[in-house]
Each structure stands twice: as C-alpha cells, then as structure tokens.
Amino acid sequence: MSAQRGRLWVVATPIGNLGDFAPRAREVLAQVALVAAEDTRHSAPLLAQAGVHAPLMALHEHNEQAQAQRIVARLLAGDDVALISDAGTPLVSDPGYRLVRAARAAGCEVSPVPGPCAAIAALSVAGIASDRFVFEGFLPARPAARRERLQVLAGETRTLIVYESSHRIVETLADLRAIFGDEREAALARELTKRFETVIAAPLAQIHARVIADGDQQRGEFVLVVAGAQGGEEAALLAEGRRVFALLREELPPARAARLAAAISGAPRKALYADAV
Predict the structure, then answer these.
(1) 99 near 71, Cβ under 8 Å?
(2) Are 218 and 180 in contact (CB under 8 A)?
(3) Which end of the chain is more exposed for a tag (fewer CB within 10 A), N or C?
(4) How far apart are CA 226 and CA 133, in angstroms?
C-alpha cells in the first residue's frame, strides 16, 4: 500500500454490531503499519477479532497535537497509517481533524474508508425531514451552558442531531421541552445496532415521559434527532440573532448585547432580550 509517502486512512468501525465491519475496512487495517486509536484498550479486542495485528498508538483530545507530528513522520517515511475512533466514523464528535490537517500540510494523501456513523444512522430511522440538518455533537455538560446553547438553537429550521450520555439524557430532554416546547417532534435512538436498540419517535413530552418511566431507557448511548422550528425566514432570523447574542453576551451587558445582535442579524431585539431575562 505504501508509495514514496505513506497514506493516512480514516477508517470507520462498527458502532455496535460487528457485522457492520466492512470488508474494505478490514483489508486496509490489516495492511497498515500503524493504527491510531482513541482508546487502545477499547480498540485492541475489536482489531484482534478482525484479524488485525498492526501496532496501536493512542490518539485522543489530550495528546493529538504531539501524536500528529509523530504520525506525520511515519507517513513521510513511507508508512501507511490508519485512524479509527472508539466506534463509528472518526472526527464525527471525536478527535482527528488536527492529524488530518497535519498530514495534508505535509503533502500526504488522506483517504476515507466510509462506514457506520451513529448520527446518520439515527437520522435515517427518525422519520424527520433529512434534506437539511445540523449536527451539534454533545451539548454542554453544565446545565446553564446547555440551556443557553439550546436557546440559540430553538429557532433553527434544520433538523437537529445531538449526542447525549446516559448521565444527562433525562435533564437534556427536560431542557429541550422547556425551550423547544412539548410538541416538537423528535426521535431518541438508543444503543443503535446493539442488542437493546430502541428508537422512540414522538413529541418531546412523550419521549421524556417514557424515559422517566422506564429505567432501561436511561442506559446506553443516545442520539437525539429533533425537528427544526417552523416559521421559515422569521425563525431563521431569530436563530441567527440568538447565535450572535450568545457571543456578545460573553462581553457585554444583556441590553446592549441584544441591541447589537438585533442590528447585526435583523432579529427582533425584544425577543433576544427576553431570552436573557
């Protein structure tokens, strides 16, 4: 596989069901000189099951900058390297973009080996408009910051996709109800492709009630798909105004931030200021 310079392969791995491990992914991983993985302890059994015996290197958010330079040195020496995440497609709410940028800056080829992605898998079964969507990854863990971010997203007209953990799913659903409204259509996908997979498609109030009532629905890994706000151009203006307002609030008093955000975005000042109070 190696030429004068090595190639960085960005390889998707299963998000649960090992049957989703693509033959091409196995082939690439079996031939590279090194596999960079987010958590080597998690990835080692998966690679062993697939018959992959290449050395593993840990690459995560805390060491990516330094490890990227080491990997680029291997690429420049002619070695092919694969990047994988704990599950699914690398760089989708996972580390890796700094490595890709460094490899490209060094003149090395970067190629994808596509496959599973929890966000796209959830969207495909949600029954919610999928022609336009926005991926938010994980919302802020702190309640105040999470609610502030949701205020910015409340007027977003595109379908919204977020990841959430078992520790925060009940609180996040409660915040979504309070800010987006009980009747906003949504789908909660849990443990996709795994034994206890469930997808609940219903208004937010019904999803929240079911999760509270059933402790099993509070376990595992979650993807939330939420329908976009209705209202067309007016809603889009308000969404942009809230985004600008949230940035200005970090430096300015609420009244002044609302006034400037309204002037920049065209959103109504009173609506933006009401969010603050």
Answers:
(1) yes
(2) no
(3) C
(4) 10
Give the burial class of 113: count Cβ atoms within 10 A of its Cβ; 0-12 exposed, 13-18 middle, 19 or more buried.
buried
Q: What is the pLDDT of residue 277?
A: 67
Q: How far apart are CA 143 and CA 205, in angstroms?
A: 19
The distance from CA 37 to its chain's CA centroid, rounded to whole angstroms, is 17
Q: Which residues of the chain have pLDDT under 70?
A: 1-3, 232-233, 275-277
Q: Give the model's pLDDT for residue 76.
A: 97
The pTM score is 0.82
* Cα–Cα dist 48/206, whole Å: 42
H/E/C letters for each residue in the chain?
A: CCCCCCEEEEECECCCCHHHCCHHHHHHHHHCCEEEECCHHHHHHHHHHCCCCCCEEECCCCCHHHHHHHHHHHHHCCCCEEEECCCECCCCCCCCHHHHHHHHHCCCEEEEECCCCHHHHHHHHHCCCCCCEEEEEECCCCHHHHHHHHHHHCCCCCEEEEEECCCCHHHHHHHHHHHHCCCCEEEEEECCCCCCCEEEEEEHHHHHHHHHHCHHHHCCCEEEEECCCCCHHHHHHHHHHHHHHHHHHCCCCHHHHHHHHHHHHCCCHHHHHHHHC
Whether 245 contacts 189, CB under 8 Å: no
* Residue 180 burial (CB count, 10 A): 22
Please tell me the distance from the alpha carbon of residue 54 to that of residue 15, in angstroms, as a whole number: 21
